[in-house]
Specification:
alpha/beta; Rossmann fold; 5-stranded parallel β-sheet; binds flavin-adenine dinucleotide
């Protein structure tokens, strides 16, 4: 039976995030509307409108930076009007913050961080215990359910359905009366894909020893056209920026290929990357725990193996050094 689905889509500047298209694919065949924030998001709304019936665009520049109360207020405005049965977002920083708050507001439930979902049957799968177990979940029949999907879980693209309507939505949230004030946002400049959305990630550990040596990881990531990640030990020692940290207290990633270079495979690191489809580990210790989770393992010195891998990938993909 066709359900009413509201997608919480995300844009980075003008570009629609690939993970938002995955949400539209997950809701294929349903009555889909979407909501998106950002004054620069015109192109993203047009791209999204090819896959959904209606896009509610919150264009007001005050929403260019996340504000928990303002976003929740704007979303409830859309929810009250559209009355969706399912509100579907990504388990991104935005989805992790705003969706549970809204679920509580509507006295509903949230099935968070799914790696598989079937909206027609209302059945879901999600990892538990840092990914050691996958649980199957179904919900009680409720008027409205909130669901978040881990990016890259389904690997699907939606079919175009034509051209949906884009509606600019004016909101009534009073920013000046809110106790939460936006002060500043600093963002690392990078041409690489976002870690949580990347299909290939090359990560480095403490064994890189210096910030300068981390360029081996960046070069390898660039050869694949992927993102660069790091263990917490590498971040704590200042070898890599904090936004590169993968793991329990860093980002949860779900790429098709994860290359762990000189990373031991501590449980807290695995918690962030163990749902990767293929894991390659490079480590000089044959007993390193990462090898028990890896699909392919190379026992060797990363300072020799990683440059050789980079050169080989460049050759295969016809990329210049
Ligand atoms: C509450 C809590 C939360 C945490 N959250 C996170 C988290 O989010 N993410 C995270 O990553 N960690 C997290 N940690 C830390 C985690 O427990 C580990 O300490 C950390 O992951 C280790 O990082 P590492 O593998 O880079 O370093 P190490 O454990 O020092 O391992 C380095 C590895 O590199 C190998 N090596 C050394 N030299 C070379 C070389 N030349 N070539 C090839 N291999 C080499 C070694 O054999 C070793 O296996 C957390 C810990 C706690 C307590």
């Amino acid at each position: 039976m066709s359900k009413k689905i509201l997608i919480l889509a995300e844009a980075r500047g003008a570009e629609l995030k690939k993970s938002s298209l995955e949400l539209a694919a997950a809701a294929k065949g349903m009555d889909i509307s979407a909501v998106i924030f950002g004054s620069q998001a015109k192109k993203a709304t047009e791209d999204l409108a090819k896959y959904v019936k209606e896009v509610h665009w919150i264009k007001d520049a005050q929403y260019d930076h996340y504000h928990p109360d303002a976003y929740a207020s704007a979303l409830s405005q859309v929810i009250d009007e559209f009355k969706p049965e399912i509100i579907l977002g990504n388990s991104s920083s935005l989805g992790k913050d705003v969706l549970p708050a809204l679920a509580a507001h509507y006295d509903s439930t949230i099935v968070a961080d799914c790696t598989f979902l079937d909206l027609s049957q209302m059945t879901f799968q999600r990892p538990f215990y840092s990914g050691k177990a996958i649980g199957e979940i179904s919900t009680e029949p409720l008027p409205m359910v909130f669901v978040s999907l881990r990016p890259n879980s389904l690997g699907l693209l939606p079919a175009e359905i034509g051209s949906g309507q884009v509606k600019e939505l004016s909101t009534n949230f009073d920013f000046s009366a809110s106790a939460i004030k936006f002060i500043e946002s600093t963002q690392a400049k990078s041409d690489r894909p976002d870690l949580t959305e990347a299909t290939v990630i090359v990560s480095g550990g403490r064994s890189l020893k210096s910030r300068d040596n981390f360029k081996l990881i960046f070069e390898c990531a660039d050869a694949f056209g992927g993102a660069a990640g790091a263990s917490r030990a590498a971040v704590d020692e200042g070898l890599a920026d904090h936004d590169m940290q993968v793991g329990q207290t860093g980002k949860t990633v779900n790429p098709s290929l994860y290359v762990a270079c000189g990373i031991s495979g501590a449980i807290q690191h695995l918690a962030g990357m163990r749902t990767s489809k293929v894991i390659v580990a490079i480590n000089k210790d044959p007993n390193a725990p990462i090898f028990s989770k890896a699909d392919y393992g190379i026992v060797g010195d990363l300072f020799e193996v990683v440059p050789a891998l980079t050169a080989e990938v460049r050759k295969l993909l016809g990329k210049a050094a």
